[in-house]
Amino acid sequence: MERMIAQHGHETIGQVGKREEMAGRLMVPLDYSDVTQARLMIEKLDGIPCYMKVGMQLFYAAGPDFIKELKARGYSVFLDVKMHDIPNTVRGGAESLTMLGVDMFNVHAAGGTAMMAAALEGAAKAASLHPSQHIPLIIAVTQLTSTNQEMMNSEIGITGTVTDAVVHYAKLAAAAGLHGVVASPQEAAVIAAACGPEFVTVTPGIRPAGASLDDQSRVMTPGQAIRQGSHFLVVGRPITAAADPRQAALNIIEEMSQA
Ligand code: C5P
């Protein structure tokens, strides 16, 4: 991919480097049902060295070949398939995803510490057998943002507030050796306090000031999320539904760089 992160004339290498770093912390979800639509979006973002997030919809349709294509194009890939199964099955799944060369994948913290540790074991095994592969960042899903407190208390049977549950799961993930969690940007600071500033937070629910909220409710701007300590920002529709996705992404990277 030809890098196009420099925007203005008379810039210092430091400013360009900062934008490169922030582009690498921006994750664009390719929420499409087929590779043709995904490739169209990739073309619109060409030259921006962001992370690409592939979720269940595209992965179940396009499979490992599309992940290899993204890697061949030079992208970092977050495979968002939220594994949740018995430890032995998750160990095998993690081994296969590591072999595929993804840079990040996730599991549900609700699977427990043995399951999360098994994910790490599977990844470590694949990386040790194949030195060209590295251990991906393995991230735990805490409480889905579609779960509100009433649902969590009355249907799922977890007492307390959603934030309590998120912090509890984050601590479990850290104890199991995982690298971080997916969380709301509002929770990034409390998670950093509980698990340390190096513990990675991947935060959806990002909206630039004035952008449509769509179906997200508790949102933060890109600048606020960076200042709260989010490591990776997942930004979908503000980029993918924009008239000019490349410019929208560059504006967000600029805001992240200034934060
Ligand atoms: O378009 P938008 O910015 O809302 O997209 C957010 C992306 O992050 C989507 O791919 C969505 O599935 C994902 N996501 C989320 N909330 C979570 C976990 C993932 O919005 N808790």
Percent helix: 40-55%
Question: How would you spell out the order of helices and strands?
Answer: HEHEHEHEHEHHEHEHEHH
Mean pLDDT: 94
Task: Please indicate the percent range of residues in DSSP E strands (runs of 2 or more).
Answer: 5-15%
> Over the alpha carbons, how many angstroms does the gyration radius reach?
18 Å
Please provide a written account of the structure.
The chain is of the alpha/beta class and 259 residues long. The chain is 47% helix and 14% strand. The protein has helices spanning 13-23, 35-44, 56-72, 87-100, 113-129, 149-156, 162-175, 188-195, 222-227, 237-240, 245-258, and strands spanning 26-29, 51-55, 76-83, 104-108, 137-141, 180-182, 200-203, 232-234. Strands 1-2-3-4-5-6-7-8 form an 8-stranded parallel β-barrel, surrounded by 5 helices. The longest helix is centred in the first third of the chain and has 17 residues, at 56-72. The model has no long low-confidence stretch (mean pLDDT 94). Bound molecules: cytidine-5'-monophosphate (C5P). Residues 29, 31, 55, 144-145, 182, 204, 214, 216, 234-237 line the site of cytidine-5'-monophosphate.
Task: Explain briefly what this protein structure is.
This protein is α/β, with parallel strands linked by helices and 259 residues long. It is 47% helix and 14% strand.
